[in-house]
Structure formats: C-alpha cells, structure tokens
Design goal:
Alpha-Beta Plaits; Aminopeptidase; alpha+beta; single chain; elongated
C-alpha cells in the first residue's frame, strides 16, 4: 500500500532542508508546493508575523484542505511541525541497518519530519488507490520547538475539523497519547540589599539566602501521577564579598488536573512572597499559562478510531499519558479533540537520533487506516 522507497526518499529530502526554529521559510515553501501537487488548497497564515520567526521573510503555519470522496464523514485534521532543534543545519542523513541516522554532527530531524513524510505519503496513497475518505485538513506548524508558538498563533478559525491527529511522539505506531498536562511557567525576582560581606554583612539582605529558604519549602519533582513541579534556573550575585541583592528564579508546574495545577502553582507563589516578606526583601512573581491540558477518554471518537486503525494494521493500540506538551494540547484547547500519535522516532534532540525505515512506512499506513476508519463514520 505505502511506497517504501518513495517515503524514504521524501524523508531524506525533508531532513536535508534546514528548518531550525525561527527559520522555516525554505521548508514551508517546499511543502506548499508538495501539497498543491497533491491537489490540496493551501493557505499560509500570519503566525510568522505574530511571533517574528524570521527577519524579513517570516514563515507562517500552512493550512491545507483536500476535498473528500465521502460527504458524510467527519472532517479530519493531520498535523506535524516544520521546525527542528539545533544543531539542525546541514543534516547529512545516512541509511544503515534499516534505519536513517544523521552523521553524528547534527540532529536528524525525524522530530518532526517523519510526521510530515507520513502525511504526504498517506495523501498520495489515498489518491493513487482511490481510498474513500472524508474532507481532510493538514496543518504544518512553525516554532513548535520554541514553545508551541506556531500552534498558539494558528488561524484556527479557518479549520472545520471535528477530530485531529498530531504525529509528534516517540513510541511505535499504535502509541496514542490521550493525556498530557497543562503547564505554567513561573518567573520570580527576589530583591534584597547589597552590603560588604566582610565589613557590614548585617546591613545587607541576602537574596540568594532568601531564595534558598523559599525553595527548601517547596514540594518539587513528581507530586503525584498527574502533577510535577520544578525550579530549573537560578541566577544572581556579583562577587563573594558582596551580599547579593538580586536573584532571578525560573520554574514550572504541570498537571493533567487543572485544579491541582492551580493549587501547586499558587503554593509556589505564596512561598516566594511569604519568605521575601519574612526577611524584608521585595519580590516579583510572574506566572504564565503556556498551554492547556490534553485529556481524552478511550471512549472518545478520536481515540476509538486510532485504536481500531492500529488493530486493522496488526499493531497493538497503546493509549498512554505523557508529561510533555505538544501541538495536540493547543488544538484541544481550540475545541478539536486531538490525540498525539507515536511515530517511532528515537533519541530525538540528540546527535544520535534515528528512525527505522519500517517505522516510516508504518506511520503512513497507520494514517491511511485512520482516514479509512473515519470515512466509515458519520459526522
């Protein structure tokens, strides 16, 4: 069904196109042409202008649509992101032992060009083999690795989809992310008072000491099976002989349960403020809500379709939770039930990243089965 040589060639072509976050113009233009070749109508939104992804010539998200052959089927959305992490320039893909690697000096970029390749191949299979399908929408986002910024600025009001699939997770085809946490980012500055550490330390207010006292009172790490918290960055101080008058702290909270997320975040804020007051320091705290949770049940249509499609192709469906966010979180926030699918990429965000050719093929086959399964249902 899937053309093994073609999807491998497409994937290699994609990873050779430099597209680190904020520099997606070249791959956006390439994909626009590929989508049009396959009969899709393509629109590029203004996300690039909103987030400033590339000086002078910003790329936006691509939103494409393909008219279905089955009129009553739900409209389905397929999504992957165009950007990669660094080092991601000058990727030299090497095929060996049934897998594709980089040459070890860069990431490979299977995150998320394996997802893009699967979508392109699935669409070609539909057309070549006359597979019945409903209306299909395709979204290729920018700046996912930079904090889901493309999806956050997506012109989502143009979408008609009733369910969606993001291809951006480790785990083989059949891995179905049904739950992922919402996240807050917390930034705080503790402002003390400088003084000479040897001559007049009692005249100072030590911001580092206050920060450490505050952090020691926080519950961090894994709070429960749905909630985590972390303080990840601390910076401050000028010299060992100066009482430090400023410390900057950055942290985060995540939870699948929104009440737990708010409670954990508020507790960290309260500790920072109370500890600063106790020692006569000033404090500023900012909390920034980064993205909503993803929470679907195995009985939801989007999940059922993915599970049934996995069985149809001989794969075991595995609904799981994750601790990370993706474009699926944002699409769910727009009211489109969305799951994130495993695509078999391994050691992502490292120079050891690879993906097997079998997984490239399975990904496209899985999408075809999902599309066929969706076409059998009524909107």
């Amino acid at each position: 069904m899937v053309n093994r040589d073609r999807i491998l060639d497409e994937f290699i072509r994609l990873v050779k196109i430099d597209s680190p976050t904020m520099y997606e113009r070249e791959i956006a233009d390439y994909l626009k042409g590929r989508l049009i070749e396959n009969g899709l109508e393509v629109y590029e939104d203004k996300a690039g202008d909103a987030i400033g992804t590339e000086w002078g010539n910003p790329a936006g998200n691509l939103i494409a649509s393909l008219k279905g052959t089955v009129s009553e089927a739900p409209v389905i959305l397929l999504c992957a992101h165009m950007d990669t992490v660094e080092p991601g320039r000058g990727v030299n893909p090497i095929v060996r032992d049934g897998a594709v690697y980089s040459d070890g000096t860069t990431v490979l970029g299977s995150d998320d060009k394996a997802g893009i390749a699967a979508i392109l191949e699935a669409i070609q299979v539909l057309k070549e083999q006359g597979v019945p399908h409903g209306d299909i929408e395709v979204v290729f986002t920018v700046a996912e690795e930079g904090g889901l910024k493309g999806a956050k600025n997506l012109d989502h009001k143009r979408l008609r989809s009733q369910l969606a699939y993001v291809l951006d997770c480790d785990g083989a085809a059949g891995t179905i992310i049904t739950r992922a946490p919402a996240q807050y980012r917390i930034k705080s500055s503790i402002i003390g008072k400088a003084a000479h550490a040897g001559i007049s330390p009692e005249d100072g207010i030590n911001a580092i000491y206050i920060a450490s006292k505050a952090i020691s009172q926080m519950q961090l790490g894994r709070i429960d099976n749905e909630t985590t918290a972390n303080i990840g960055v601390i910076s401050g101080g000028k010299a060992t002989n100066i009482i430090p008058d400023l410390v900057n702290i950055e942290g985060e909270t995540r939870s699948i349960d929104t009440e737990k997320l708010e409670r954990q975040t508020d507790r960290i804020v309260e500790i920072l403020e109370a500890t600063a007051r106790e020692y006569g320091a000033q404090v500023t705290v900012e909390k920034d809500f980064l993205y909503p949770r993803l929470k679907l049940e195995v009985t939801d249509t989007a999940v059922l379709i993915a599970m049934e499609a996995a069985v149809a192709m001989g794969q075991k469906p595995v609904p799981v939770s994750t601790g990370g966010g993706s474009d699926a979180n944002i699409l769910n926030g727009y009211g489109i039930p969305t799951v994130n699918l495993g695509i078999g990429m391994s050691k992502v965000h490292s120079t050891e990243e690879f993906i097997t050719i079998d997984n490239l093929v399975l990904n496209a086959q899985y999408l075809v089965e999902i599309i066929k399964n969706t076409a059998k249902r009524k909107a």
